[in-house]
Amino acid sequence: MVEDPDCDLDLLSNTYRQFRMINVLFSNWYILYRFYLKPRMQKRVHSYSLLDIGFGGGDIPIQLAKWAAADGFNLHVTGIEIDPRTLDYVNHIQVPSNVSFRLASTDDLLDENRKFDFIINNNTMHHWTEEKLHTMMADAGKLCRNLIIFCDIERGDLAWLFFTVISKLFFHRSFISHDGMLSIRRCYTKRELQNIMPGDWFVKRFFPYRLLLMHEPKQNEKTLQ
């Protein structure tokens, strides 16, 4: 398992590398970029910033930075993690100049008085307790100026079956299949998230079998529906 500090490092490296294909197949961040992030970056002379809480294999920050650059936007993406093994991995891959990775927590960024235009998180909510989720939402709300998107799997039998078949067919020599099947069992349903989220957050279903937990700071409040 990825969370095991004594896990096989070769399998761990393969897992980080395979995250990219998993995210292409299931997370659909290009659609999220086109619908939610790009429309909020209309001033090409302006510099924008995005924070990815829990960058994993680093593929999502890298892709977001590339898409923004291709569209002519000056977006700098910062990815943070608390597991040093993730930083070891991204230090050995090619990273665009508008992307940086560091070992840090949201507490560290709050202590530094940092602010970001956008904050994202991918496939991590199911690892957090309800208390931890509320803490992360509160921290993100203090760090963000514009839009927060937490994206995760929605728990369900079809989602579990679909992922199990795909992962066992195509993702070998990694923790993808084992950890993914466990993760789906831990995930929230839409109703469960709605029952515990603050009133100024919004939950939206997203294809395939995904949930978006979203928030806009009050100074830039808009309708996300």
Tell me what you see in this structure.
- With 225 residues, this protein is an alpha/beta fold.
- It has one domain (9-220): Rossmann fold.
- It is 44% helix and 21% strand.
- The chain has 9 helices and 7 strands; from the N terminus they run H-H-E-H-E-H-E-H-E-H-E-H-H-H-E-E.
- Strands 3-2-1-4-5-7-6 form a 7-stranded mixed sheet, with helices on both faces.
- The N and C termini lie far apart (37 Å).
- Mean pLDDT is 91; it is low at 220-225.
Count of all domains? 1
Largest sheet: 7 strands, mixed
Model regions low in confidence, pLDDT < 50 over at least 5 residues: 220-225
End-to-end gap? 37 Å
Mean pLDDT: 91
Number of strands: 7
CATH superfamily: Vaccinia Virus protein VP39
Strand order of the largest sheet: 3-2-1-4-5-7-6
Helix content: 40-55%
For the record, the CATH architecture stands as 3-Layer(aba) Sandwich
What is the oligomeric state here?
Answer: single chain
Q: Summed up, what is this model?
A:
With 225 residues, this protein is of the alpha/beta class.
Topology summary:
Blueprint (H helix, E strand, L loop, with lengths): L8 H19 L1 H9 L9 E7 L5 H12 L3 E8 L2 H7 L8 E5 L2 H6 L4 E7 L7 H14 E10 L3 H14 L5 H11 L3 H7 L5 E5 L3 E6 L10
Parallel strand pairs: 1-2, 1-4, 2-3, 4-5
Antiparallel strand pairs: 5-7, 6-7
Helix pairs in contact: 7-8
